[in-house]
Amino acid sequence: MHSSIRSQHVCAKSRNGISHSDVHAKVTRVNPIAEEHIRIHSQSTSINAAFLHEIKVDDMRLKRLLAHLKTFGKIRPFGLNRLPSLAKLLGDFRDQLAFHFTLEEAYGFFDDAIEEAPQISRKVTLLKYQHVQLFDRACSLAAKAEEIAGESPCLRAVARLRRDIRALLARLQEHERAENRLIMDVLNVDLGVGD
Length: 195
Known about the structure:
195 residues; 73% helix; disordered N terminus; 7 helices
């Protein structure tokens, strides 16, 4: 993230004390496309096996939390007794998302991508900014869920929260697709496939 964006970005620490800036020194998530980039990148950079394990664990945790959130979005009817569980799940998701984005940025893929293909710097800037936007939204939804769970919730507020969660998950999915397309663009440049 750019320092100007980071300095403007403030999110209260979560229950376990993790904030986006606390975990910024970590690294990137692995998905099937990113593994090839890591293999190519590791030819010139030494990558610690424990570090790669951390990346894979992050990816599995995030996918598991996303699956649970999608399940909560499909439950009909949604009983108000489920709100405390949903609030906890959103808090866990927010924390994992902070870690996930920090891994992506700390690994240096974005910087490497610009170095390999300067024409994609605008895409990289947009993707980094989306990290801030998505994380801010996850923070606000987690806070809203805790607020609703702590009071006498109305069904309209719960329905709005669930709709907002689905919208966040859709935005995150599109963001991940854009990152995968960026990885492919850079790999095409690395391998000499793209024009």
